[in-house]
Amino acid sequence: MKIVEVKHPLVKHKLGLMREHDISTKRFRELASEVGSLLTYEATADLETEKVTIEGWNGPVEVEQIKGKKITVVPILRAGLGMMEGVLEHVPSARISVVGIYRNEETLEPVPYFQKLVSNIDERMALVVDPMLATGGSMIATIDLLKNAGCTSIKVLVLVAAPEGIAALEKAHPDVELYTASVDKGLNEHGYIIPVSAMPATRFLERNKIYREKSRL
């Protein structure tokens, strides 16, 4: 599995600001969108282009445009919506597919509860966005849904990832690509990414500032 930890200075700076315990929900969302935008820039660096001739201001001019598969952005509800705007800044024509998954607190297994995928997803590259890759359960379940629908080109964009989640994702889906702003230390006994100051997905939901995202994996 291709794993890219984006170490651009702007990504490091913005991610550091997001880790501040007293950051406002508004600022957190803005930064998440900005980092999502930068991750998209990296994830789409290998898109193929083709030369076409267009009518310029001073006559015909040859330019390069993206060719090949179109894109669908797939936010995992609900926190993934916070990164979606930044992704769409670079690919505004992308279609939106949505997947909702929660964790069964007894079995700790991911449970899909909603999906709305574009009809021609088998012809598109999917950019799956979620703030955190912790145990990897939600992401793996999402990719399972996409592949079952015929999608064969999948890239994952997350703000932070735990080594455990990366290993699980690689084992389940070695053919996907992972782009993350940070690989953090690991998981605590509850399956949450540490350090504890790592971004709580609840900021996207305008709840309190205590880390209590118990429905995420």
Automatic annotation (TrEMBL):
GO biological process, one term: UMP salvage
Pathway: Pyrimidine metabolism; UMP biosynthesis via salvage pathway; UMP from uracil: step 1/1
TM ranges: none
Residues the record lists as binding 5-phospho-alpha-D-ribose 1-diphosphate: R78, R103, D130, P131, M132, L133, A134, T135, G136, G137, S138
UniProt note on regulation of activity: Allosterically activated by GTP.
Residues at which uracil binds: I193
Protein's name according to its UniProt entry: Uracil phosphoribosyltransferase
Record lineage: Bacteria, Pseudomonadati, Pseudomonadota, Gammaproteobacteria, Enterobacterales
